Amino acid sequence: MAVQSVERAVGILELFGPDRPFLGITEMAELMGLGKTTVHGLVKTLCGLGMLQKDPGSSKYQLGLKLLELGHVSAGNLEVNQKSAGLVQSLAARTGFTCRVGLWSQSSILVVLNALPDVSGSFPSQFGPRIPGYCTGLGKAVLAFLSDDQLNQYLEKVDLVRRTEHTITDPEDLRRELHKTAQRGFAVSNRETLPIQAALGAPLFDRMGRVFGALSLSGGPEQVLGPNQDNLVGNLLQCAGGISRSMGHHPEYHSYKGPA
Questions:
Q1: For 23-32, what is each residue's pLDDT tens digit?
Q2: CATH class in words for 75-246
Q3: Beta-carbon neighbour count of residue 37 at 10 Å?
């Protein structure tokens, strides 16, 4: 019974997201398929622990500051963050673009490190949103280096939602794009998530040679994919290679040989 209560409590926390920042007891009960009395008891406990808090202006609840505290602790303890923070901040400062590290988790990318180019001497922020794999530079850099079975499983369950007119929504078109990505060693996302943003992504490998995440560089399409693209790709791959080596990956990293 105690285990069931924990599962239900975690389930309530997972109901919240960017599209549902506030929820009432009735909404939570309906989404969880539980009685309102049961949900109210769980919510009361979560509020007491600081994991939920009641919105003063309504009868709804939002995620509490305790989760933010725990998130900072978790991000700060991540091995990849500890080993890549300086490299990623240097890349952002050197190129003038926002750089991110994302980990492959639950069939999507969890951004765990953000580095801005204009924040000299500061430590990169350590957490961020969960973003889709199929239409982002970070995601495509990972998908291109998954095994065939892993990619097939991903495509079977993911909904390729059209986010802009440039989003790839056909599975076979995406497969072809990922094949090109694997051949050249880096991913390109050109206005596929946001109409004003492009990104370059490079895979990160662990000591077993498995892709576990990616490093990206993003900004305006004209700047990222313009005349300086080759230089940006070289810097990106060099940084990603350094991160992979720090994580125990020893084989020579992909070298960029120019546009495919």
A1: 999 999 999 9
A2: alpha beta
A3: 10
Answer for the pair 211, 104: CB distance below 8 angstroms, yes or no.
Answer: yes
Distance CA 97, CA 87 (A): 14
> What is the topology classification, in CATH, of domain 2-63?
Arc Repressor Mutant, subunit A (1.10.10)
Q: What pLDDT score does 2 carry?
A: 58
Residue whose token pair is 């791959």 = 237
Structure tokens, 44: 């009361």
* Segment 61-115, tens digit of pLDDT: 999 999 988 887 887 788 999 999 999 999 999 999 999 999 999 899 999 999 9
Answer for the pair 207, 228: CB distance below 8 angstroms, yes or no: no
Sequence-separated (6 or more) residues with CB below 8 Å from residue 20: none
Environment class of residue 196 by beta-carbon count within 10 Å: exposed (0-12), middle (13-18) or buried (19+)?
A: exposed
Torsion angles phi and psi, residue 116, rounded to 5: -100, 145
Is residue 215 within 8 Å of residue 202, measured between CB atoms?
Answer: yes
- Give dist(CA 115, CA 197) in Å, integer: 16
Residue ranges of the domains in the chain? 2-63, 75-246
Q: Is 79 helix (H, G, I), strand (E, B) or coil?
A: helix
3-state secondary structure 199-247: EEEEEEECCCCCEEEEEEEEECHHHHCCCCHHHHHHHHHHHHHHHHHHC
d(CA 189, CA 166): 9
